[in-house]
C-alpha cells in the first residue's frame, strides 16, 4: 500500500470510529482486533486517539478494519482487503504463479520447490478451496502478491486469464519473472528478457528465483524480512 493511501485510510478509519463509538468502545474495538490502544495523552480527540493506535498496524489488518467499518478503501487495495485462504496464516514472501490449466502440474511443482526459500506460491488450480468463489480468490491473490511468476508454456499467450493476470502485475509494478518453457513472452512483458528453462530441474529454477528476489530492489527488502522470520 502506498504511503499516501495508508495515511488517508488511517484518517478515514479514525473519523469513522470517532463518529460511531465512545472512547471505551473504541478501545474495545481495538482489543477485538488484537491491537493495544495507546495511553491517553491528554488530547481530547477520539480521532487522534484512533489514529495513534493505527500507526503501526499491518496493511492487511488495516484493510480488514476498514471493511468492518464500511470505510471505502483505495481502488488498488479492494481485492486485497481479504487475503486468499492459503496466505492468511503465512509470513512468507507471496508469489503468484501464472500458468495455463493443462500445465498446472508444473506450477504446483515449482510452488513446492519454492517453499524452503520462505516463498509461498499461489497456484489457482491448487489453492482455491471448492467452496470459495474462483475469480474473487484469484483477484485477492493478485492484489496481495509480492511478486509474479509467469510460466510460458505453449498456449500461455492465448489464454485470456493469464494475460489479465499479467496486466494486473504490470499495473501494480511488482517484480515479474518470466520462465520460457516453449513459448516467448508477449505483450507488456515481451521487452524483458525471459529466463529459459533449458534442462534445469524445478529445484534449480527455485534456487534461481531465490537469487533474483534477493538481489532485485523491488523485492530484496521484503523478501529478506520474510526469510528472517523463518529462522
Question: Could you outline the blueprint of secondary structure elements for this entry?
Answer:
Elements: H1 3-20, H2 23-32, H3 46-54, H4 59-68, E1 93-98, H5 104-114, E2 119-122, H6 124-127, H7 134-144, E3 147-152, H8 160-172, E4 175-180, E5 195-196, H9 202-215, H10 220-228
Parallel strand pairs: 1-2, 1-3, 3-4, 4-5
Quick tags:
10% strand, 47% helix, 5-stranded parallel sheet, 10 helices, elongated, 2 domains, 231 residues, alpha/beta, Rossmann fold
Could you characterize what this model shows?
With 231 residues, this protein is α/β, with parallel strands linked by helices. 47% of the residues lie in helices and 10% in strands. It folds into 2 domains: 79 residues; 144 residues, 3-Layer(aba) Sandwich (Rossmann fold). It has a 5-stranded parallel β-sheet, with helices on both faces. The protein starts with a helix and ends with a helix.
Amino acid at each position: 500500500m502506498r504511503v499516501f493511501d495508508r495515511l488517508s485510510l488511517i484518517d478515514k478509519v479514525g473519523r469513522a470510529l470517532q463518529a460511531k463509538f465512545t472512547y471505551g468502545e473504541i478501545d474495545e474495538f481495538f482489543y477485538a482486533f488484537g491491537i493495544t490502544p495507546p495511553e491517553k495523552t491528554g488530547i481530547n480527540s477520539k480521532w487522534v486517539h484512533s489514529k495513534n493506535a493505527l500507526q503501526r498496524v499491518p496493511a492487511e489488518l488495516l484493510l480488514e478494519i476498514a471493511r468492518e467499518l464500511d470505510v471505502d478503501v483505495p481502488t488498488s487495495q479492494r481485492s486485497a482487503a481479504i487475503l486468499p485462504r492459503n496466505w492468511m496464516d503465512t509470513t512468507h514472501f507471496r508469489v503468484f504463479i501464472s500458468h495455463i490449466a493443462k500445465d498446472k502440474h508444473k506450477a504446483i511443482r515449482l510452488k513446492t520447490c519454492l517453499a524452503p526459500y520462505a516463498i509461498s506460491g499461489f497456484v489457482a488450480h491448487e489453492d482455491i478451496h471448492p467452496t470459495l468463489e474462483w475469480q474473487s480468490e484469484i483477484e485477492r491473490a493478485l492484489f496481495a502478491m509480492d511478486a509474479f511468476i509467469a510460466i510460458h508454456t505453449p498456449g500461455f499467450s492465448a489464454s485470456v486469464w493469464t494475460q489479465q493476470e499479467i496486466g494486473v502485475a504490470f499495473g501494480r509494478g511488482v517484480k515479474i519473472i518470466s520462465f520460457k518453457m516453449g513459448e516467448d513472452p508477449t505483450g507488456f512483458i515481451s521487452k524483458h528478457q525471459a529466463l529459459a528453462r533449458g534442462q534445469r530441474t524445478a529445484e534449480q529454477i527455485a534456487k534461481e528465483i531465490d537469487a533474483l528476489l534477493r538481489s532485485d530492489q523491488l523485492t530484496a527488502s521484503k523478501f529478506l524480512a520474510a526469510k528472517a522470520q523463518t529462522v
